[in-house]
Specification:
The strands form two sheets. This protein has a six-stranded parallel beta sheet, with no helix packed on it. A two-stranded parallel ribbon has the order 5-7. It has a single domain, classed as Ribonuclease Inhibitor (Leucine-rich repeat, LRR (right-handed beta-alpha superhelix), Alpha-Beta Horseshoe). The chain is of the alpha/beta class and about 150 residues long. Helix 3 links the parallel strand 3 and strand 4.
């Protein structure tokens, strides 16, 4: 099924109500609200891949704020995101356990980055992180992977 922003809530919910994993990678979405419009009808969504999108507008209306409430696995690789944008995006993913933010050219953060308390695994592969001091700046209780 081709899911477009213009599909109605009912069309998506009727056609594919049991979807648990959705790959919206490389669509060059610029607004998280567009992604939320697509995901909101998918009540069983647990895994969301957004690799290669360019999310610069990350605000959501109250109506869309619950769109990602059940997502546990999120991929934001190659999205050209900064730490503050990642932190803001993750605020909408209240139950996320696994996050991939590789290939974003992220440097060591200069301040504490607050991560969701549910987070168990954070993959930071192929960023510009130069030392393990990053661990001092990440407010995370789970496992952080820094493949070299």
């Amino acid at each position: 099924m081709l899911i477009r922003y213009s599909n109605s809530f009912e069309d998506i919910q009727t056609t594919c109500p049991q979807i648990t994993s959705l790959d919206l990678s490389r669509n060059l979405f610029i607004s998280l609200a567009t992604v939320a419009e697509i995901c909101r009808p998918l009540q069983n969504l647990r895994s969301l891949r957004l690799t290669g999108n360019r999310l610069w507008n990350i605000a959501l209306s109250d109506e869309l704020s619950s769109a990602f409430q059940k997502v546990e696995w999120l991929s934001l690789n190659m999205c050209c995101l900064y730490w503050d944008e990642i932190e803001s995006i993750l605020e909408w993913f209240t139950r996320v356990k696994h996050v991939e933010i590789g290939f974003n050219r992220l440097p060591n953060p200069s301040r504490t980055i607050h991560l969701p308390p549910s987070l168990e695994t954070l993959i930071l592969e192929s960023n510009e992180i130069s030392s393990l001091q990053i661990l001092d700046f990440l407010d995370a209780k789970g496992y952080i992977s820094l493949p070299l």
